[in-house]
Design goal:
Blueprint lengths: L4 H23 L6 H14 L5 H15 L5 H6 L2 H18 L2 H16 L5 H13 L3 H10 L8 E4 L8 E5 L5 E6 L6 E5 L5 H12 L3 H8 E5 L7 H10 L5 E4 L15 E6 L2 E7 L7 H10 L3
Parallel strand pairs: 1-3, 4-5, 5-6
Antiparallel strand pairs: 2-3, 2-6, 4-7, 7-8
Helix pairs in contact: 2-3, 2-5, 3-5, 5-6, 5-7, 6-7, 7-8, 9-10
Length: 303
């Protein structure tokens, strides 16, 4: 077959175009299998369940960053809806274990793209709201709650000045649905009890301590019953606790990492502070209680 000069030029032009298109297609990365990455992250979460809180959070955070943290904005934009939802759910896992705002921001990056595609469901709103509350980004949480009643509820929050990085708490205020932030003084001998109004072990501990003639009065003077950095702020629950266990005031922690020496937040955990540092710790509450260990802690803080 004879190819004319004109035909050769056309063939060369089309061939170059096809080569260019082929190069463009070759430069487009294949879609990542986010389901496999998500399953691997969940597997790490399962393996880490028996580790300490710090180890568990570090393992899960490292797995997330390896598998999901390198996704660029362009890659997120290109993800199909199902994969974008997986990215949202994946970021949700380390939020609760690390309380690091970075992971809430990772959730938000997926959330905003899902919203732009009109793919937001009630579960997305609820999870995003709870993540912002958990990392104490209350303004972001309130924006979601104001936009949709099914997202969640925030009480009125009154903030008093607290030095940066200092331990602080949210205690019920004068209003019926109000929390007030205030600094926590740990320089005086103090017992901080990590607890929760719905925790049966916390309830048993409070009842048994109050009924004990040696422990009751000293805990009434020295103890603060502190909720962990949770995804909800329920003033009614705290008020119900304080009605049932009047000698022992309860409040929400503001930011856990600002409380020195408190490395476990399971309920109940008892931390005995003297001079601003933890000198004794008691974990858990069996049926028989832990009177001897609590008395040891009281002795160590000079009470």
């Amino acid at each position: 077959m004879t190819v004319t000069r004109h035909g050769w030029i056309l063939a060369l032009a089309f061939g170059g175009a096809f080569l260019a298109l082929g190069g463009a297609f070759a430069s487009t990365p294949a879609p990542r299998d986010l389901q496999a990455d998500y399953d691997a992250l969940v597997a790490v979460q399962t393996r880490a369940i028996d580790r300490s809180e710090a180890e568990r959070g570090a393992m899960i955070a490292a797995s997330y960053r390896e598998r999901f943290g390198t996704l660029t904005a362009a890659e997120l934009d290109a993800l199909p809806d199902a994969s974008l939802d997986l990215r949202f759910r994946a970021a949700e896992i380390p939020v609760g274990y690390t309380l690091d705002p970075y992971y809430a921001e990772q959730m938000s990056a997926a959330y905003e793209r899902l919203a732009a595609r009109s793919r937001i469901e009630p579960r997305h709103r609820r999870s995003m709201f709870e993540a912002w509350v958990m990392v104490r980004r209350f303004d972001a949480a309130r924006r979601i709650a104001d936009a949709a009643a099914d997202a969640g509820h925030l009480p009125l929050l009154h903030e008093t000045p607290v030095p940066s990085g200092a331990p602080a708490l949210w205690a019920p205020g004068e209003g019926t649905d109000t929390l007030t932030r205030r600094p926590a003084d740990l320089t005086q001998p103090r017992i901080v009890v990590v607890s929760h109004p719905l925790c049966g072990f916390s309830q048993n501990a409070a009842r048994q301590i109050a009924a004990d003639p040696e422990l009751g009065p000293r805990f009434a003077q020295r103890s603060l019953w502190l909720l962990p950095q949770t995804a909800t702020l329920d003033v009614e629950q705290v008020r119900a606790w304080q009605s049932a266990h009047a000698p022992y005031p309860m409040a929400y922690v503001d930011v856990q990492r600002n409380w020195p020496g408190m490395d476990e937040w399971g309920t109940p955990t008892f931390y005995f502070f003297k001079g601003g540092r933890v000198v004794h710790k008691v974990v858990g509450w069996p049926a028989a209680g832990r009177k001897a260990e609590l008395l040891e802690g009281l002795a160590r803080i000079g009470d």
